[in-house]
Specification:
The chain is α/β, with parallel strands linked by helices. The chain has a single domain, classed as STAS domain (Transcription Regulator spoIIAA). Helices cover 36% and strands 22% of the residues. Strands 1-2-3-4-5 form a 5-stranded mixed β-sheet. A hairpin with a 5-residue loop joins strand 1 and strand 2. It is globular and about 35 Å long.
Length: 132
């Protein structure tokens, strides 16, 4: 049934068909220096995938957390909120947080929401490890 026909017959079309969500895979490993922890993300950081991310961030007690965004294609507002939450926690505990390999798309989302200035950005994991 065409959507025009459905509307004239009082049937509301389903505009938001369920689509499979790409998973967020999180690798957790130590950095080159003592006290460094690296989370390598692969997949989108969005509301459907952020709970695992939040759990990993909360579980990390290392002085320096480096989050590798090289394989993160996009974030939504919930993902940005989770990042800001990670920043606040690390600032309050006097721990550092660095983002690596952030794509233009993700960086633009952080700029538009005016939270990009909270984060330290690095192009490579080695640069972030050297700075931490």
């Amino acid at each position: 049934m065409a959507w025009e026909t459905a509307l004239t017959q009082g049937v509301t079309p389903n505009y938001y068909l369920a689509m499979p969500q790409d998973p967020l895979v999180i690798e957790d490993f130590p950095g080159r220096k003592d006290g460094q922890r690296i989370l390598r993300l692969s997949g989108p950081l969005v509301i459907a995938t952020l709970f695992g991310f939040q759990a990993k961030v909360r579980a990390s007690t290392s002085p320096a957390l480096i989050i590798d965004f090289t394989n993160v294609p996009y974030v939504d507002s919930a993902g940005i909120g989770a990042l800001v939450g990670a920043y606040v926690t690390h600032q309050n505990d006097r721990r550092s947080l660095a983002l690596v390999g952030v794509s233009d798309r993700v960086h633009s989302a952080l700029q538009v929401t005016r939270v990009d200035h909270f984060f330290r950005f690095f192009n490579t994991l080695a640069e972030a490890e050297d700075a931490a």
